[in-house]
Design goal:
The chain has three domains: 186 residues, Hypothetical protein af1432; 143 residues, 2-Layer Sandwich (Beta Polymerase, domain 2); 100 residues, Beta-grasp domain (Ubiquitin-like (UB roll)). Helices cover 58% and strands 11% of the residues. It contains 21 helices and eleven strands. The strands form three sheets. Strands 1, 2, 3, 4, 5 and 6 form a six-stranded mixed sheet that branches. The longest helix has 37 residues. Bound molecules: manganese (II) ion. The site of manganese (II) ion has 4 residues, from loops.
Length: 488
């Protein structure tokens, strides 16, 4: 990797921009790391360049890429954060400092996991770009795990799966999430990985490519008349997600393997729906497999149309239809919109970003204003708390092992009083289910329901839920008295 590759990548999206400071940062980093080498023998600067390159791929602003180049300087060299601030400005220094602090979070088994997650969230709250630097850094560390001892490898892979990839998922940075997961999978479960890799990438690949070509021909013929430009590609499911699905009992081996997954990218949203109509007219859709994530985006902002049809020779074929913009978003999540230079873009993004990201950004601004005091307060507030998400993407913090009923009352007392069931991460869960950090919780309500169940008091964790349940009983009790009182 060379600095020119990083510069060219950045210029792909920022043609006219001056990159002199980036080149200076490269020289600075090279001088600082001097003769240091990575465990695999490569000059240390290679790690800095790879980190910066991944950030440039994410179309992030110049200061973040500069910070990516310098991210290990204060920790591993004799140059200080002050010197970085003096040469590259306060913003770069703040980003480097944040990422250095984050490096100190080490995975120390499950009991420390929440603590680490909480810190990650705090880091996000300070500046989301710090997390991106950390992700790029981690990705390159994973790509060079080979030169480390088995123990160290496994620790890093485990830590990545427990802390980094869930957060990448929450932020919708799928490409990084999948890249990281597949590497971790390879090191943690080498045999399963090899088996799947052979099955899927060797045996399946030929079949997949032939099938794609046939589908492509049929679609192109049909679309010539409509004059819609489209790109169609094979979607190779990443190995770790196949492995995870296979762990679930209700999935059979073949159900996962025999699905052909294709992605169609078109110019406009109207084209997305047009293509969907054409696909459904060519092949019969499978019932209940159509999802409109354009009209109703996922909590992390993911947008696409998805449908599964009985394709050529009745083969199950999954289509994902989206615009170019949605395609970029799905790879890099919110970072696609993370343009600090043009404030208007930022506002535009804020309008359509999920509410919980807006809230984090709000906290970020608060911290910038009154920094350390609020930071300390937040530390205390977040202790022993978990974050869960509503289907709309709102984030709620609850005490550890809170239940769907606690969640329901936190959202609204009517939702609590009318709750009849819950879905956690799209699966039905009992109302006393212990929620975990990052869970997506949906409450099923019944409007006619009279009120809560007394049994709920046995498992609720929040005072709010407990008080509301008691209050509901008190109210029914008083209503009943009124009902049976002799009328005057
Ligand atoms: Mn590093």
């Amino acid at each position: 990797m060379t600095i020119n590759q990083v510069i060219n990548k950045f210029k792909e999206n920022n043609a006219g921009e001056d990159t002199a400071l980036l080149e200076l940062a490269y020289e600075f980093a090279q001088k600082a790391h001097d003769s240091q080498r990575r465990k695999n023998g490569e000059p240390y600067i290679q790690h800095c360049l790879h980190t910066a390159f991944v950030l440039a791929e994410m179309k992030i602003d110049l200061n973040t890429i500069i910070a990516g180049l310098l991210h290990d300087v204060p920790e591993d060299t004799e140059y200080t954060i002050k010197e970085i601030a003096k040469n590259f400005g306060k913003e770069v220094a703040v980003l480097v400092e944040g990422s250095t602090k984050l490096s100190k979070i080490k995975y120390r088994g499950v009991e420390r996991y929440r603590e680490s997650l909480r810190k990650m969230f705090l880091a996000i709250a300070r500046d989301l770009r710090v997390i991106l630097i950390k992700f790029a850094d981690r990705l390159h560390n994973l790509q060079t795990l080979d030169s480390l001892s088995v123990e160290k490898r496994n620790r890093i892979a485990q830590e990545t799966l427990e802390i980094y990839t869930p957060i990448a998922g929450l932020l919708g940075i799928w490409r990084l999430k999948w890249q990281m997961e597949d590497i971790c999978f390879k090191y943690l479960y080498p045999e399963e990985y090899k088996k799947l890799e052979y099955k899927y990438e060797v045996e399946k690949k030929i079949e997949n490519n032939q099938y794609l070509q046939r589908i492509k021909n049929i679609l192109s013929n049909k679309l010539k008349k409509e004059k819609i430009n489209f790109q169609i590609t094979n979607r190779f499911k990443h190995l770790y997600s196949i492995y995870q699905k296979m762990q679930l009992k209700d999935y059979k081996f073949n159900e996962i393997y025999d699905v052909f997954a294709l992605r169609v990218v078109v110019p406009t949203i109207a084209d997305c729906y047009k293509i969907l109509g054409i696909i459904h007219s060519l092949w019969k859709p499978k019932i209940n497999r159509f999802k409109d994530y354009i009209a109703m985006p996922k909590p992390n902002g993911y947008r696409s149309l998805q449908t599964t049809v009985f394709g050529i020779e009745g083969k199950a074929t999954e289509f994902q239809i989206r615009t170019q913009e949605m395609d970029e978003e799905a790879k890099y999540g919110f970072s696609t919109h993370w343009n600090y230079k043009t404030k208007n873009n930022n506002k535009e993004y804020l309008k359509k970003s999920p509410k919980w990201i807006r809230e984090i950004l709000k906290i970020q601004r608060e911290i910038e204003n009154t920094h350390d005091f609020i930071k300390q307060v937040k530390f205390d507030v977040f202790r022993d708390r978990i974050f869960v998400f509503s289907p709309k993407g709102d984030v709620f913090d609850l005490p550890e092992s809170a239940t769907p009923i606690d969640f329901a009352y936190t959202v609204h007392s009517d939702i609590g009083n009318q709750a009849t069931g819950a879905r956690v991460n799209d699966k039905i869960a009992p109302l006393n289910h212990a929620l975990k950090n990052g869970d997506l919780v949906e409450i099923v309500i019944e409007k006619k329901r009279k009120g809560p169940s007394r049994d709920w008091l046995k498992f609720v964790k929040t005072d709010k839920a407990r008080n509301k349940i008691k209050q509901a009983f008190k109210n029914t009790f008083l209503d009943n008295i009124k009902k049976y009182m002799p009328k005057k």
